[in-house]
Amino acid sequence: MSARKKYWLMKSEPTDFSIDDLARVKTEPWTGVRNYQARNFMRQMKPGDGVLFYHSNTDVPGIYGIGEVASLPYPDKTQFDKKSKYFDEKATPEQPRWELVDVGYVRTLKRPLSLNEIREHRDALGEEFALIRTGSRLSVMPVTAAQWKLLLSLE
């Protein structure tokens, strides 16, 4: 019996890496996660899991595309690179602190689902939907199958 597919929302600033960038390169390591809870979510990811690609810190924050997890988690090499903004002096190759997964491009949404539009469906998405919970700032968060289906139905 295979594990059930899981779903995730992953945030990126479009000036750093956008859905258009992912469409161009097809697969990209999701580097730079430096929050333990977000890292722990990435540790649960499996190839084939669905990803809602969210643009944050932009004029119209929202979901802009769909990706999928394309690898099992592995150490994020940027933690060892002293020139990287993601360098972590406490991490070593023998005891890495940060992991990542590769994310593959599936498609760009026909139209972005803005954060404001997503908030309009707060009741249907439920309290556990972290994106619209006050104070939630994680760059990686789980999405239920029902939330995934609802969000994509808005497209």
UniProtKB/TrEMBL annotation:
It comes from the Bacteria. InterPro entries: 5hmC_binding, EVE_domain, PUA-like_sf, THYN1-like_EVE. Gene3D superfamilies: ph1033 like domains. Transmembrane segments: none annotated. Residues 6-153 form the EVE domain. SUPFAM superfamilies: PUA domain-like. This is Predicted RNA-binding protein, contains PUA-like domain.
